[in-house]
Amino acid sequence: MILVVSATVFELEAFFKAGPKLPVQQLVCGIGPVEAALHLSLFLARQEPLPTAVFNIGIAGAYCRQQERAHVLDICLAEQEELGDLGKCEGGSLSPLIVKNCVLPASFSPDAGLRQRMRRQLGAFGIACTSGRFITVSCASGDREHGNMILGRYPDALCENMEGAALARVCAHFNLPFAELRCISNMVDDPGRQQWRLQEACARCGQVAALLFQEDSWLHSLS
User: Fold this and answer.
1) Are 61 and 188 in contact (CB under 8 A)?
2) pLDDT by residue (tens digit) across 16-71?
3) Average pLDDT, the chain
4) Which H helix or E strand runs over 43?
5) What's the confidence (pLDDT) of residue 88?
6) Of 90, 112, 160, 192, which one's alpha carbon is 20 to 30 angstroms from that of 147?
7) Minimal CA–CA distance to 63: which of 122, 149, 128, 139?
8) How far apart are CA 125 and CA 34, in angstroms?
9) In sequence order, what are the residues at sequence separation of 6 or more whose Cβ sits closer than 8 angstroms to the Cβ of residue 189?
10) Which residues are CB-contacts of 219 (< 8 A; sequence separation ≥ 6)?
11) Which residues pair with residue 60 across a beta bridge?
């Protein structure tokens, strides 16, 4: 059985309200990389057998550039996940933290085959997806300046969230396929939270993710 993970109950409620037809396990992991890693690790440590795969669904903020790659309410799939603010912040820029004889894993790869199958399945329903590099942060970008600092380190970054890389790290430890689907709720240069389309993005993410669980033929290779 597949495990569907969201940071908040609102995101997960939207998924079940949309009516997935296949049975799934569910987990609300909490907000931020620490809570996400803790709660997924505890959940998986108690499971026998383990889930066949882990799906992270939720909302995200898209980075702004001259030619934007994602817009509000777009559906995005993660090709790569980065712990974006793990490093050294100095003079308005981010750089990797170098510690002698110490490895600081900060980059993780969701399952490429699973992502491609998700894209094909959603395409059959006429749902377009944008794939790219996701950035996991502990402090969400509240203005263009902070977003540009992230882009300075990751020029091809698509969007940011607060859990994906942590969940991907845990899945790598448990040797589980991991995939991430998010809906854009805001652009990171919009400091006015009242303008963020959080409810709409949660609803759309849930509706789209539920389409992946209407029939299981495309999931057979995971079992």
Assistant:
1) yes
2) 999 999 899 999 999 999 999 999 999 999 999 999 999 999 999 998 876 778 89
3) 89
4) helix 33-45
5) 66
6) 112
7) 149
8) 35
9) 64, 143, 144, 147
10) 2, 22, 52, 53, 117
11) 184
DSSP conformational letter for 191: -
Length of the chain: 223
Helix (H, G, I), strand (E, B) or coil at 129: coil
The pair of three-digit structure tokens given for residue 8, joined into one six-digit string: 């908040």
Mean pLDDT, to the nearest integer, of 174-186?
A: 96
Contact by Cβ (8 Å): 62, 74: yes
What span, in angstroms and rounded, lies between the C-alpha atoms of 28 and 52? 18
Q: What is the pTM of this model?
A: 0.91
Please say whether the beta carbons of 152 and 89 come within 8 A. no
Say which residues have a Cβ less than 8 Å from residue 164's Cβ, sequence separation at least 6.
56, 78, 81, 134, 136, 180, 182
